[in-house]
Amino acid sequence: MLNVLSIGGNALESSKNLNSLLDAVQLLSKKGKLLITHGNGPQVGMLADIEKQENLGILTAQTEAQIGVHLQEEILKRFSKKGSRANVETVLTRVLVDSKDIAFKLPSKPIGKFYTKAQAAKLSRKFKMKLLLHGYRRVVPSPRPKKILNMGSIEALLSKNNAVIAGGGGGIPIIYRGSYFDFADAVIDKDYTSALLAKSLRASRLFILTNVDGAYLNMKGDHPKMIGKISVRELAQHVRFKEFEEGSMKPNVEACIDFVRSTGGIAAIGNLKKATDVIKLRNCTVIS
To answer: What is the pLDDT of residues 211-228, one digit of tens each?
Structure first.
């Protein structure tokens, strides 16, 4: 049995959240194989602000390695403290995207810090800038993942290890240029990659851990309501009615729908602070 655990990049910044995650990893490791994915939004955004001319695919590789190895060592440390052993490996994951994806013509994924109008005007000569609630931010392409290019390595490691960390930050975006592969100047949403990995590996369950307790209806209204258990068909209807925020909860929900429809498995969205509850399908949104 294989479980896939997807962790939001923002949620990883708290040491309390890390402890909750490690508790969940220990529980899941007793149930079978475990694949861990993670976000990298804050980290790749910071690097993009510093290295403005660097390809985003290369920056994703840097942050995937940084966060993955850190998680790997924390997991090994936790198992060691509990008197047990674990085999954990981190895979820098190459993910194929379509060079004709509409995202390259219409970049929409905000990264990095906020800028003033004057700063944004200067940056707009080289980058696409967008006015958001707190100021201007750079927006970049975020194409859908098509194929995991080093799936063989991930499968081989899973056959020998308790856990594998892969698909960090959505993976390193790669495009095909006629006769060779190249880095794409883009970022991939880690939840879409998580669903692709979970489907490709025929996982039993997909858990998406964020900084909220689940998927909410009427989130911006006076009386938001968290979804508990819901069928994939009902959840898809809420997506069609545009109940979920673009670039936030919507990718989480769409990834879960894709996974459940493709595998017949179970998916859950919940709070990283309550990670052990989520993997027990409690106090979270459960999709089946």
So the answer is: 999 999 977 767 889 999
Are 9 and 40 in contact by the 8 Å Cβ rule? The answer is: yes
Kindly state the DSSP code that residue 113 receives in the 8-state scheme.
Answer: E
Largest CA distance in the chain: 57
Q: Tokens standing for 283? A: 């106090």
Pairwise CA distance, residues 136 & 116, whole Å: 6
Q: What is the mean pLDDT, run by run of 10 residues, along the chain of 288 residues?
A: 90 80 92 94 91 92 95 91 83 97 95 94 94 92 97 94 92 93 96 97 96 88 88 96 87 97 97 96 97
Average pLDDT, the chain: 93
Domain boundaries, the chain: 2-107+142-287
What are the tens digits of pLDDT across the range 161-170?
779 999 999 9
Distance in angstroms (rounded) separating the CA atoms of residues 190 and 196: 10
Q: Comparing C-alpha atoms, which of 28, 34, 18, 65 is closest to residue 197?
A: 34
Alpha helices in the chain (DSSP H): 15-29, 41-50, 56-81, 117-123, 151-158, 190-200, 232-240, 249-263, 275-279
DSSP-assigned letter for residue 170: G
CATH for the stretch 2-107+142-287: 3.40.1160.10
Tokens representing 111 are 């990264």
Concatenated DSSP letters of 137-150: EEEE--PPEEEETT
- Closest by CA position to 194, among listed 263, 276, 141: 263
Alpha-carbon gap, residue 117 to 111, rounded angstroms: 16
